# Entry
Amino acid sequence: MTGSGRPYRRRRNVTVVSLLLLVLSIALGPTPSAAAGNDWWDPTARPAPDSRIDVTGEPFTGTNARGEVRGFVDAHDHIFSNEAFGGRLICGKPFSEQGVADALRDCPEHYPDGSLAIFDFITNGGDGKHDPNGWPTFKDWPAHDSLTHQQNYYAWIERAWRGGQRVLVNDLVTNGVICSVYFFKDRSCDEMTSIRLQAKLTYDMQAFVDRMYGGPGKGWFRVVTDSAQAREVIEQGKLAVIMGVETSEPFGCKQVLDIAQCSRADIDKGLDELHALGVRSMFLCHKFDNALCGVRFDSGTLGTAINVGQFLSTGTYWKTEKCTGPQADNPIGNAAAPAAEEKLPAGEEVPSYSADAQCNVRGLTDLGEYAVRGMMKRGMMLEIDHMSVKATGRVLDIFEAESYPGVLSSHSWMDLDWTERVYGLGGFIAQYMHGSEGFIAEAKRTEALRDKYGVGYGYGTDMNGVGGWPGPRGADAPNKVTYPFKSTDGGSVIDRQTTGERTWDLNTDGAAHYGLVPDWIEDIRRVGGRDVVDDLFRGAESYLDTWAASEGHESGVNLAAGSSVSASSSEWSLFTSYQPHRAVDGDRHTRWASDWSDDQWYRIDLGSPQTVGRVTLDWERAYAKSYRVELSADGENWRTVYSTTAGDGGLDTARFAGTQARYVRVHGQERGTGWGYSLHEVGVHSR
# Structure
């Protein structure tokens, strides 16, 4: 959310021709397109005037020789964030029934020279002044460093589709705190109200495109709600649009002074509503700690500003601790953010943070775990970007224990050390839309893992997400994009994109709007060769593989549930029971606890011989550093099938070749704490 300032440019006088175009765009509805032919990818009618697409040739259809779909994946975009944050922070609309002049115009308060573009002051590091005219001149926006203007006009998305993109995740987004403190708004700051509106408008945009092609179902912009439907759409050569959610307080699950403001019933109701709207992926926390999970921090001045926002929303600041593993959250730093800090109550100050304590103390809460498991039941995919490493680690533990593949990292916000665990689960990873050099370097770093797991790659443009996009490499840069160029599949020719009086060139303008995604991919090919682009082109198939596996997931039967159990010892308490049966009662709030010595065991009698291939151990704080999982047919002769000397607590999953056994024993050899061993739940599964 940072950027460099740009000089103020004098507002251009509107020509007579421009005025006529403005009037026509408002007065005329969809009319036959002069350029339209009989090709299925050309609309029979398009608003006039409108943006050009500047791509010729037939979009590819069908599958490859292996029966796989092809195409690029944008796993993180915000088509309708102009409706978020009170409706006046992102200026311009993705489409309008009144035409392009209505869709691509600045916020009212930005006229005549952008002096009241307050958010530009904050995000762009300058004075916010700019020529507010969009159509038809587009002198100052959209631009790669203009963070508050519409970048997702439908015709620009159409160009990306024509250039080879086949999956677009439209993350419905807002933030109630930003809305409440921003000066300009024209609607409620309630987050779920905004999410509902953005979902509706996604379907409205589909209908808008359909009308250009002759009626329902005929357009290229297809909202999909299951992987089979998405596969069919992509095979037809069209764009599969999946809805996700990225918001700070889903279902109203904020926390105030560490007290949750939602319940399990709220979570169930919220998940059911989102699923009914068509949402299939979501974040559980974003920017602010909430009642579900702690966040991965922002850094620098922006981090301080967001920390102020967290205090204003929750009454608490971020709290840090030393990390216990190789993963870490982003460093907060102690940068000043005067404009934000002025909003704090008198005498209130943002705390300072130690450089050697970089992890959020907040992980996944009990309510958060309930939400995670609720998403699993509904076959939804969980975004782990923005989650603290403590929360992410618990989520990955849960998914590994259940063999659930539905995990996404869509725009470079997870710790990179999680990469193989995500791929091992069957999840999908996309990188933020960095400049070509940086994007290629990161893609090469993880290439061996993609080869190992046989997966494709994605990008997350995060357009309309106030993040900043690749700047121009320069007209004289080596290996610059040469126009026109062929699409990755070789079937289309892509030239410079023109809207109104403005023509964009990636070399000199950077990634100014969504229509330049194909140009950016060509830049990657020119700079880094074909390998990265080929991995990106396999993205659609990999994304659908993750989605389909999530939909088809079935929780395995827990053979240990209600079984006869025994233990070497059980801790005595006057107030509660820590007897062995408490770890197989299905309640994660009860537990078995041993005496406080090393050599202890916990034994399960399955009642009859069963195939055992997976054992899950949900440790309380008193965990085993060293332990074995043993199987036996008779309860006397034991065979070790799993062991570790590096246990760190949490939720462990022991996997091994399926083996017939009636008895399962967890044998603790060395404690990880000064207490005994303590297990909330033990699961035994056939695979």
About this structure: Residues 74-294+362-552 form a domain with the TIM Barrel fold (CATH 3.20.20.140).
